[in-house]
Specification:
single chain; 583 residues; alpha/beta; Phosphoenolpyruvate Carboxykinase, domain 1; Phosphoenolpyruvate Carboxykinase, domain 2; 3 domains; 9-stranded mixed β-sheet; 29 strands; 29% helix; 22% strand; binds oxalic acid; binds manganese (II) ion
Length: 583
């Protein structure tokens, strides 16, 4: 395979001249190609074949133990001027960044195959779909891109018809963390990634293209690229309300996207459109419509079970690539929180006989990579070229205190403030301390490809363009009591909160007004069948000025670092809330 697109041809030739691979393989995305690459990886030990009777088409990959998560401190946005990247990004001057990376790429693919991977983000035939080409020396990346994107000959055809594409160059190098960089050049629609084989650093269609580069393009073109799941909630009358929800990594987006309603919600159905990324466009009808640019799930395994996410477990029954989970002696994948007892004779994620003294058997950020089409609740509208109309946007985080179970913003401007003032406890999805509260506006701290101040201004600009924008909500499933126990059951029971959100979107759903927004009125949450102490519910919905005053002070200080980029409307919101909390 080759291409009639001269720019692509020249780029591939120049990369080959720099990296000096032994072979060049253009990926066509066929089943046969996938099976050939998988067989070769089984042969060389990159993949371990799992029990094919119980897990047909499933494999385990063990990554280098120093390469198990995103590396935010090594991720850069290289714009021609530093303020464009903003205080929310590491910045390097583009020429210096290219020189640094090109020195690392020189000869890096000697003895290896260079895979040219054309891919499309977004449904075929969608006006919102965008193309990219990833050049990589990792067969694991090539096969994962086939699961996560629309990859191969059809994507190449799209590039040949539409000309533009994002250029992503990836080499695993020698996996030395000292020589690891994930660089973005939004003005050049280019990504350069070196020294990591981990999904978020190496599958360039996902975080690098569909969030960092796309958020930049979205600002220029008037749309939004967001770290959001998309789900449809179909009521017993057959009416479906679509919501998009932003939560930081490893805070339950995949579980919420595949939620199984409690038995009391007979007749309700949940439809999964996406679990990680949403591209939102204002349509001529004035509503925001969302497409999921991805075609697969790259989800966190630990904690996933038939109790927490039965739809996900059903999705994972076949044709799944697991990374860094543990292995039972029956050749089955295993992780902390999966159904059943821990089997004897377990091999941990590093390939050692499991010993509790070595930590968890599965890495806390171990993952599955699987086609979205395998999900039993995958929406029949997930591939609609126009996407699905969004009625509610939900922001959230992992907060043991402060944030109530749910509240609704007063209006769009206030909702943008709610999103911009989000915070969450850090998780194992990124290298660094776990459990530390950090501000994570719109769950985009690691993913916004430009200055957050300008990003919020872009969000605010939508209110002048439409009166039919979604309502905005904030949720927190993670409140803890004085003994450190979760106060809300979460998982399927989150349907109770989603139902109130749907009610609000339909002009129903009783609310009371608090300084931070509208909260469910007493009895407005449908808690039928749930054993929960009414005092706990009251506490979950309480707004305690004692907690909120320091919170809002912290938000104000956080905004200060954006200096003149911070929109005045957000500063006004800080003032208003501080004042309201005093009275
Ligand atoms: C992810 C992440 O992999 O957010 O989706 O880290
Ligand atoms: Mn994510």
């Amino acid at each position: 395979m080759t291409t009639s697109n001269r720019e692509l041809q020249n780029w591939v030739a120049s990369v080959a001249a720099l990296t000096k691979p032994d072979r060049i393989h253009w990926c066509d995305g066929s089943e046969q190609e996938y099976q050939t690459l998988v067989a070769a990886m089984v042969q060389d030990g990159t993949l371990i074949k799992l029990n094919q009777d119980t897990h047909p088409g499933c494999y385990l990959h063990r990554s280098n133990p120093t390469d198990v998560a995103r590396v935010e401190h090594l991720t850069f946005v290289c714009t021609s001027d530093k303020p464009s990247a903003g205080p929310n990004n590491n910045w390097m001057e583009p020429a210096a960044a290219h020189a640094k990376l090109d020195a690392l790429y020189a000869g890096a693919m000697q003895g290896r195959t260079m895979y040219v991977v054309p891919y499309l983000m977004g449904p075929y035939g969608s006006p919102y779909a965008r193309a990219g080409v990833e050049i990589t020396d990792s067969a694991y990346v090539a096969v994962s891109m086939r699961i996560m994107t629309r990859m191969g000959a059809k994507a190449l055809q799209h590039i040949e018809q539409n000309a533009t594409f994002v250029k992503g160059l990836h080499s695993i190098g020698d996996l030395n963390p000292e020589r690891r960089f994930i660089m973005h050049f939004p003005e050049e629609l280019t990504i350069k990634s070196f020294g990591s084989g981990y999904g978020g650093n190496a599958l360039l269609g996902k975080k690098c293209h569909a969030l960092r580069i796309a958020s930049w393009q979205a600002r220029e073109e008037g749309w939004l690229a967001e770290h959001m799941l998309i789900l449809g909630l179909e009521d017993p009358h057959g009416q479906t309300t679509y919501v998009a929800a932003a939560f930081p990594s490893a805070c339950g987006k995949t579980n919420l996207a595949m939620l199984l309603p409690p038995t009391e919600f007979a007749g309700w159905k949940v439809w999964t459109v996406g679990d990680d990324i949403a591209w939102l466009h204002l349509a001529p009808d004035g509503r925001l419509w969302a497409v999921n640019p991805e075609a697969g799930f790259f989800g966190v395994a630990p904690g996933t079970s038939t109790k927490t996410n039965a739809n996900c477990m059903a999705t994972l029954g076949r044709d799944t690539i697991y990374t860094n989970v543990a292995l039972s002696d029956a050749g089955e994948p295993w992780w902390e929180g999966i159904d059943g007892e821990q089997p004897a004779g377990l091999t941990d994620w590093q390939g050692r006989p499991y010993q509790p003294g070595n930590g968890a058997a599965a890495h806390p950020n171990s993952r599955f990579t699987v086609a979205a089409a395998q999900c039993p609740t995958y929406s029949p509208h997930a591939n609609d070229p126009q996407g699905v109309p969004i009625s509610a946007i939900i922001f959230g985080g992992r907060r043991a205190t402060v944030a109530p179970l749910v509240y609704e913003a007063f209006d769009w401007e206030h909702g943008v403030f709610v999103g911009a003032s989000c915070a969450s406890e850090t998780t194992a999805a990124a290298t660094g301390e776990v459990g530390k509260v950090r501000r994570d506006p719109m769950a985009m701290t690691p993913f916004c490809g430009y200055n957050f101040g300008e990003y919020w201004a872009h969000w605010l600009s939508f209110s002048a363009k439409s009166e039919k924008l979604p309502r905005i909500f904030h949720v927190n499933w993670f409140r803890k009591d004085g003994n450190g126990r979760f106060m809300w059951p979460g998982y399927g029971d989150n349907m109770r909160v989603l139902k109130w959100i749907v009610d609000r979107c339909q002009g129903k759903g009783q609310a009371v007004t608090a300084p931070i927004g509208y909260l469910p009125a007493a009895d407005a949450l449908d808690l039928r069948g749930l054993t929960i102490d009414p005092a706990t519910v009251r506490e979950l919905l309480a707004v305690d000025a004692k907690h909120w005053q320091p919170e809002i002070e912290h938000v104000g200080q956080y905004f200060d670092q954006y200096v003149e980029a911070i929109p005045a409307a957000l500063r006004d919101q800080v003032q208003r809330l501080a004042q309201a909390l005093k009275s």
